[in-house]
From TrEMBL:
It comes from the Eukaryota. It is found in: Secreted, Extracellular space, Extracellular matrix. Residues 166-255 form the Fibronectin type-III domain. This is COKA1 protein. Residues 158-167 have a biased composition (Polar residues). Pfam families: fn3 (PF00041), VWA (PF00092). InterPro entries: ECM_Assembly_Org, FN3_dom, FN3_sf, Ig-like_fold, VWF_A, vWFA_dom_sf. It comes from Cardinalis cardinalis. The gene is Col20a1. Keywords: Extracellular matrix, Secreted.
Length: 296
């Protein structure tokens, strides 16, 4: 599966899209580069929520590997998103090109870093990594699969999504210029935790709140006024994440002062009055002479 990202991640194809090597290589040849910003944290969250799901071709019993390819420093918190993936047993390989931040690559990648972090000076040099990276990936999958099957014959892990593992009926209410309230119906099997991720739809730093599995509501505050927000509620189990709930809503604009009136005019003063704006703590009053040619 492959996703490209800038300020808005985009799935190019799912894990289940291509069944042969030839189909996959043809898809790579037809890929068009997506320019823009570098919101790596948002991209990793997109991979977890959209690409590593059964309906996108992910098998819960299969090993999960994410290869991050980036040519710049992230403009949001990539480490927080990466840690969430790693906590779910998803292994991250980080490959940097040109202006990538080596320290950030090492933060995002899984251990051992000598096998999961790569950095090259320019795009053509990526070809030099293919052989080694292929061998490392295949070896890691075999190692991890062997460890899991050697442990016990039966795993106590979720093997399906749906009402068993996924919350339903997300309600967004009490929306103000800087807050909103979220509530949802929990799944039949309570999760260990919930991850609530929210961010402005036109690009911005994703923020995350982690809740205990017994909680099914949250008040979001300190939001930006008059802004559309994307919200995701993701249930997290011991070794899997259920399908997330998603919602979109806009905060209200800040109220404005109204009914501006001018009175008590003199040769060098005037009095202004207006109806108060709800919630305002101060006012900034600007005045200037009328445009050239007009009467002062």
């Amino acid at each position: 599966g492959l996703s490209q990202y800038s300020s808005d991640p985009r799935t190019e194809w799912d894990l289940s899209a291509h069944s042969t090597r030839e189909q996959l290589l043809e898809a790579v040849r037809n890929l068009r580069y997506k320019g823009g910003n570098t919101f790596t944290g948002l991209a990793l969250t997109h991979v977890l929520e959209q690409n590593l799901k059964p309906d996108a071709g992910a098998r819960l019993e299969a090993e999960k590997l994410v290869i991050l390819l980036t040519d710049g420093k992230s403009q949001d918190d990539a480490n927080l998103a990466a840690q969430t993936l790693k906590n779910l047993g998803i292994e991250i390989f980080a490959i940097g090109v040109k202006n990538a931040d080596e320290a950030e690559l090492r933060q995002v990648a899984s251990e051992p870093l000598e096998l999961t972090v790569y950095n090259v000076l320019d795009f053509p040099l990526l070809s030099s990594l293919v052989g080694k990276l292929t061998r490392v990936l295949c070896t890691r999958i075999k190692e991890r699969s062997h460890k899991e099957t050697a442990g016990s014959a039966v795993k106590d892990t979720p093997v399906s999504t749906g009402p068993q593992l996924s919350p339903t009926d997300l309600k967004i209410s009490a929306v103000t210029s800087k807050s909103m309230h979220l509530a949802w119906s929990p799944p039949l099997r309570p999760p260990k935790k919930y991850r609530v991720v929210y961010y402005p739809s036109k690009g911005g730093t994703p923020k995350e709140v982690v809740l205990e599995g017994a909680v099914s509501s949250l008040q979001l505050s300190n939001l930006t006024s008059h802004t559309e927000y994307l919200v995701s509620v993701i249930p997290v189990y011991d070794s899997a994440a259920g399908d997330g709930l998603r919602g979109v809503t806009s905060t209200l604009p800040l109220s404005s002062p109204r009914s501006l009136r001018v009175s008590e005019l003199s040769h060098n003063s005037l009095r202004l009055s207006w109806e108060a704006a709800q919630g305002a703590t101060h006012y900034l009053v600007l005045c200037s002479a009328a445009p050239d040619g007009a009467e002062d």
